[in-house]
Amino acid sequence: METIETWLAKYRLFLQVEKNYSPHTVKGYMHDLHEFFRYLSSTAEDQSLLDPLGWQVRSYLGHLRLKGLSKRTVARKMAAVRGFYHFLLRKEVIGRNPLELVSTPKQTKQLPRFLHYPDLEQLLDAIPVHTCLGLRNRAIMETLYASGLRVSELVSLDLDDLDLDVGSVRVTGKGQKERLAPLGKMSITWLRRYLDSARSSLKGNEDTEALFLNNRGKRLSDRGVRMILDKCVHDAALALKISPHWLRHSFATHMLERGADLRAVQELLGHANLASTQVYTHVTGARLKEVYEKSHPRA
Prior knowledge:
Blueprint: H1 4-18, H2 23-41, H3 54-66, H4 71-90, H5 117-125, H6 132-147, H7 151-155, E1 162-163, E2 168-172, E3 178-182, H8 185-197, H9 199-203, H10 222-236, H11 245-257, H12 262-269, H13 274-295
Antiparallel strand pairs: 1-2, 2-3
Helix pairs in contact: 1-2, 2-4, 5-10, 6-8, 6-11, 11-13, 12-13
């Protein structure tokens, strides 16, 4: 009889090859699954790990709640477990999915948070551009906002992904799907300045095709971009705690506010489903209501 470790290895391969998930996503799934089985091992015999009882799964759900995790985090962890047992069911390793009668807590819907355009301008204009790092930082922020990129997509960019003459960038998104994203005039301007004046100095003797580099000449990391944004927010004296994803949300929101077609924004964001993009219509609707209430004499 094949062990739980064997099936976890097969599931990892399934996520990598058949689902074409990114290494970051696969790592997250496997971390959540190993956490689940560590807990299960404390409540069950080894032979029941592949086919636990409903009460054992509900016990784990209660364990997560007692840890004080958010509903979103609990839902994500349970989705990983649910997916694994669905995989085992398809392979006819088990005869039922032990999670089919276990309900995941409903998440509170949160609207995407974004920057109003004056705040965005304040953020960008406050970046000092008299140094190599400053030029890099301005190019990063302009590109995130101009193209609506995820931070993981941004740090994965190589030099040959850019076509500044055409004004586009080739992006590898979720599921390793490629798309072309536009680069506005401002982002092209700052990318040219970064490439002409800063990148070679940052690169030093390193041999890399990465577009954005850290101060050691290596490819910039997700965490590095977040630290850069924190500094930019501090320099701009914005009383906000924002993440790079806010710039992606700002991109989508500002496009829709100015009349962009929802399907076009979906393509630009690289969303597989229109429902993922439709959340921004609620944001723009809330913004329109705010404008109405401030402007209409009888609002």
